[in-house]
Amino acid sequence: xxxxxxxxxxxxxxxxxxxxxxxxxxxxxxxxxxxxxxxxxxxxxxxxxxxxxxxxxxxxxxxxxxxxxxxxxxxxxxxxxxxxxxxxxxxxxxxxxxxxxxxxxxx
Length: 107
Prior knowledge:
Layout: H1 25-28, E1 45-47, H2 55-60, E2 77-81, E3 84-94, E4 97-105
Antiparallel strand pairs: 1-2, 2-3, 3-4
């Protein structure tokens, strides 16, 4: 057996303090410590709607085809983070790009 494969790593014990009931509030109400996370970048999905079509129709799609979705054109779009709706808003033009004007939040 080769000695290079048997590397010994020193193991040290770690002592952790137990959280008290009031310490748990940090996890329950992140708004109290927003300064710790405010600069973290996240992805937010803008959901326009959903549609169901058959596999056959999917393969038959051509340029110019239109698929009807399950949302009325006047309804707000959903902004989703981690599978949860966090806000709703309306599609707007921002220069050459699309944007979402927030109508209400779910936070």
